[in-house]
Specification:
heterodimer, A: five-stranded mixed beta sheet, B: alpha/beta, Rossmann fold, four-stranded antiparallel beta sheet, 10 strands, 26% strand
């Protein structure tokens, strides 16, 4: 599919994401201005606070955005997943340039002019409103401009906490190795940044008294009022257009992790619920352990998970290999600890698959991971962040098989497949249900020492959600043992390989199954 | 004594002003009479600008008392006090984002004069300082020459008809020809309007032209306070040093 065809086919979705993006940036900048400008003014009056406050704002900006989102998730009121968390993070990022430029702009007002203003008998408020702020306005607008351009970029990360925006396309594009998605997301974000930069540049020049000539009519304050009013009207219109429908009692929030299979399983539940007249809020593609935390916090009702992940990463048990024992213990502990119900297994496992190139496997006659141990010292390995850090991940894995690689690279999981097939690395830890395994000619080495614990797919659902929405019981009952590993690989390939729309793929599959 | 109190607009009683690590003004006594132009003469850092700022309460004395119209500056409402005192600084201290008309009309608008009265006053003031209101009222300070800006600065200081004018090296940044003509015009204006003025300068020629009395300042002290004639005849070493520069300059003409 050419980029042009892609745009034609996905035009309305792209516009929706652009609008979400603009709303996030606009609201966060508005809030940051409302907080930042008065803060900056106060800092010009109280020198002692200047260092500490600017220091804190500075530190805020140096925290990587994904990490900041991570800190915010468990916090009450400002945390959780979705738009609110994204806004809090964006406001924190935007504060520094706005506060700093307000302080700089006011302090840089010619001391002679300020002294004249005081000596004429202006009150403190009059000096601020009539002299300092108008003269500092150009510099302040520059700060807002910088903050806005940064916010357009940071907002792409907001997709990781389910706030939407163009990051949805960028993350999805990375995961599915789909250049059209990547390009559509990144290009739109870049164009938004340029447009914001240009428009605020125009505003900035209007406020710069250096270039002011007699032709300029009206007072600075009136122009400021007009500009603010215009921005509010435009922003208000965008907000109004982008307003969401009010939530209802029987609404179910369905979440997913940030990979295709998880989103697909979530979409299956979502469509089956909608078929039964339940309204669904989709909170897909959440990073790391966000779905778990959101489920426990009550912002999600249900999301797909794997028993092995719950057992080791959430419950912090040492890995064991008996599927039944893992399932039973997870079910019991989730009920006790989190008031969360574990559904019947869906019928397939998504375990770690240790993959090499098919040609290497044939040439070196490799069948098992033990076979590969001899080759390891000459190989580079590529592992996702998740695999590197979890209890049943890299450390135990390399120890069990006595593996010593020439180099271990930590990278995005979805990129490892491409890295392997394009010879950037020689061995990766992928997912057994990955649709690209056959198409990229990758070979899965057998786990001959049975290191990896079982990863049966299940749904995790809050107990109170089950009582509130009876349709959930019905849906989960139907999905028990309904999906085989081969079927899952095929579904994944429909989306990752053939770049098809997940909603259509799910719709088709549900019809096939007669659900 | 009572007579003096009534006649004088400003009095310094044993005024000292010091910063944590330096004394700027030490034990100054000074009286400014109504209607006179008093010039404070001295080199940079002698405390003459500080003296001005003590009058309109941009600064308050560390000890002693500055009285304006018989009332200590510390008991005046500073805003009210400053609106009764015109202030002119080098380059005029004009607001770059205000038109000339708004700059001149500043204090009247702070005093809530109605628009018609303010506009009329602005035109009157611009005419008074020799600027055509029709040409200049809607321009911005950037578009004017240094001399024109200085005229606007004087017009702004006079706009609300204050009894007292303070001028801090008002003509210092101007070329010699413009400076000379502005000095002449100001002397004429001050006499005609009967304004009391305190002017600060380091230029002894300017002091001789404008001052009815000249106060010579050095290292935070008022060394002498004399009429121009008696200042010229003074045998005080500091005064002689200034007068000699005048002779050298005079010889060059």
């Amino acid at each position: 599919m050419s980029f042009w065809q892609f745009l034609q086919a996905n035009w309305s979705e792209l516009l929706l994401l652009v609008r979400q993006h603009i709303v996030l940036v606009f609201v966060s900048i508005l809030v940051a201005v409302i907080i930042g400008v008065p803060t900056g003014i106060i800092l010009t009056r109280y020198r002692a606070f200047r260092g500490p406050v600017l220091g804190i704002a500075n530190v805020m900006q140096t925290i990587p955005s994904l990490a900041l989102f991570g800190f915010l998730i468990p916090l009450p009121f400002i945390g959780g997943i979705g738009t609110r968390t994204a806004l809090v993070a964006l406001v924190l990022y935007s504060l520094l340039p706005i506060i700093r430029n307000t302080v700089t702009g006011i302090l840089n007002v010619d001391p002679n002019v300020r002294e004249a203003a005081v000596a004429m008998g202006m009150t403190g408020g009059q000096v601020l409103r009539q002299v300092e702020l108008p003269l500092a306005m150009g510099v302040i607008v520059t700060g807002i401009r910088v903050a806005t351009v940064i916010a357009v970029g940071v907002t792409t990360i907001a997709a990781a906490v389910g706030a939407g925006g163009l990051g949805v396309y960028i993350f999805r594009g990375l995961r599915q190795y789909d250049n059209n998605l990547l390009l559509a997301g990144a290009l739109s974000a870049a164009l938004l940044a340029l447009a914001a930069d240009f428009l605020l540049g125009v505003v900035e020049r209007r406020f710069s008294f250096e270039t002011k000539r007699s032709s300029a009519k009206g007072s600075g304050v009136r122009k400021l009022a007009v500009a603010v009013a215009a921005v509010l009207v435009i922003g208000g219109a965008i907000l109004w257009l982008g307003r969401s429908t009010p939530s209802s009692e029987t609404r179910v929030a369905v979440g997913s992790k940030d990979f295709t299979e998880s989103a697909l399983l979530a979409e299956i539940v979502a469509q089956m619920l909608e078929e039964r007249g339940v309204s669904v809020e989709r909170r897909f593609e959440l990073g790391g352990n966000l779905p778990h935390e959101a489920l426990v916090a009550g912002t999600l009702d249900i999301y797909p998970e794997y028993t092995g992940t719950s057992f080791t990463a959430i419950l912090q048990h040492a890995p064991i290999t008996d599927p039944r024992a893992v399932y039973d213990q997870v079910k019991q502990e989730y009920a006790n600890k989190f008031k969360v119900e574990v559904s019947q297994p869906l019928g397939f496992e998504n375990t770690f698959a240790i993959l090499v190139r098919g040609e290497d496997a044939r040439r070196l006659n490799l069948k098992t991971i033990s076979n590969a141990a001899m080759e390891a010292p000459r190989w580079r390995a590529g592992f996702g962040q998740d695999f590197m850090s979890r209890a049943d991940g890299y450390p135990g894995f390399s120890k069990t098989y006595g593996l010593k690689f020439a180099e271990v690279r930590e990278m995005d999981l979805s990129l490892t497949y491409i890295a392997l097939s394009s010879r950037q690395v020689d061995l990766i830890a992928g997912n057994s249900t990955e649709g690209r395994i056959p198409t990229l000619d990758l070979f899965q080495l057998a786990d001959d020492r049975r290191y990896f614990p079982p990863y049966e797919a299940v749904y995790l659902v809050r107990q109170d959600s089950l009582t509130r929405v009876p349709a959930l019981q019905d849906v989960l009952g139907k999905l028990a043992n309904a999906i085989s590993t081969d079927e899952m690989r095929r579904l994944n390939y429909e989306i990752d390989g053939k770049k098809r729309d997940p909603k259509e793929v799910v719709k088709e599959w549900l019809k096939e199954k007669g659900f | 004594m009572g007579h003096t109190e009534a006649q004088s607009l400003v009095q310094f009683h044993n005024v000292t002003y010091s910063l944590p690590n330096a004394t700027i003004i030490s034990n100054m006594n000074l009286t400014v009479e109504r209607g006179e132009t008093l010039v404070l003469l001295g080199e940079s850092g002698c405390g003459k600008t500080t003296t001005l700022k003590l009058i309109n309460r941009l600064l308050t004395p560390t000890s002693g008392e500055v009285r304006v119209e018989g009332k200590s500056t510390t008991t005046w409402d500073p805003i009210e006090l400053r609106r009764r005192i015109g202030y002119v600084i080098q380059e005029g201290g004009l607001f770059p984002h205000f038109t000339i008309a708004r700059n001149v009309g500043l204090v009247p608008s702070l005093l809530d004069w109605d628009d018609a009265r303010t506009n009329e006053r602005v035109r009157e003031m611009l005419n008074l300082v020799g600027l055509d209101p029709d040409r200049f009222a809607e321009r911005y300070p950037r578009e004017l020459s240094g001399g024109q800006r200085q005229r606007v600065g004087v017009a702004r200081a006079l706009a609300a008809d204050p009894p007292l004018l303070l001028l801090d090296e008002p003509f210092g940044a101007l070329d010699p020809l413009t400076r000379a003509s502005l000095q002449r015009e100001f002397a004429e204006l001050a006499t005609r309007l009967g304004k009391t003025a305190v002017l600060v300068t380091h230029d002894v020629r300017e002091a001789m032209i404008l001052g009815q009395r000249i106060g010579l300042m050095h290292k935070g002290q008022l060394l002498l306070l004399e009429s121009p004639e008696r200042f010229r005849a003074s045998d005080h070493p500091q005064a002689r040093a200034y007068l000699e520069t005048l002779n050298v300059n005079g010889g060059a003409h």
